Write the structure tokens for this entry.
Amino acid sequence: MTGTATPTSNAAVGRDDAVLLVEDHQAVRVLTLNRPAKLNALDTALTRALHDALAQADHDPAVRAVVLTGAGRGFCAGADLGEFTRLTPDDQELVLERAELTARTQKQLQQLSKPVVSAVRGVAVGGGAGLAIGADMLVVGDDLRFGYPELKHSIVPALVMTGLQRQLGRKLAFELISTGRLLGAAEAAAAGLVNRVVEPDGVLPAALEIATAWAGVEPRAMRAAKELFHRVADLPYEAAMRAGQDVNALMRGFRR
């Protein structure tokens, strides 16, 4: 596969100091969090750039799958605590604006019509952990350090708690939130949290392999499958079966 850089936001990509890198590998779009000196911590600029790039990938008919990864030795260290000095009760409008942006971005991966795989090496904590498990599949390096250390900083992991509860059993989820303990790759795999564990340098190639296979599927069928998968997770059995019947009736028109 060959990759070509694809600018999506003049403020975020296409420069040497871009906080988000966007590259296409044929029908697969790779989004790379690019603040390696900060372990790709999520400040407002990076969060907004990621949100906008995901929306653009969703609306681009040439893109059939998305890979989310991080530059450097870690995936994402969560929220950039340096920004919290400005997010105070004295500026409630700014606080609410940042919280709304974070919530929309955390939900976006599941709501995207294209499938997303996270390629994670090293640290994935807090908001970074939320992004990692928010994808439809997750490939991690055997150097993974995954968790929610927010309470150690007197912060409640409020916007990532819902996603965590849907991925793990309640006891383990509460343990991670309340103690800040970090999971390694083996324990995360045993808990059913990840799809593949590979060498750290192999996370992106493994994720690209998955995404390339997705890209070969008829896009209407893939979109319907993803939407139905997440929809039935929250429905009673009978309602879920009716939803499945509706898609079953439609899928005959998906053949090429």
Remarks:
- The longest helix spans residues 92-111.
- Confidence is low (pLDDT under 50) at residues 1-11.
- Strands lie at 3-5, 20-25, 28-33, 65-70, 116-120, 123-125, 137-141, 145-147, 196-198.
- The CA atoms of residues 2 and 25 lie 6 Å apart.
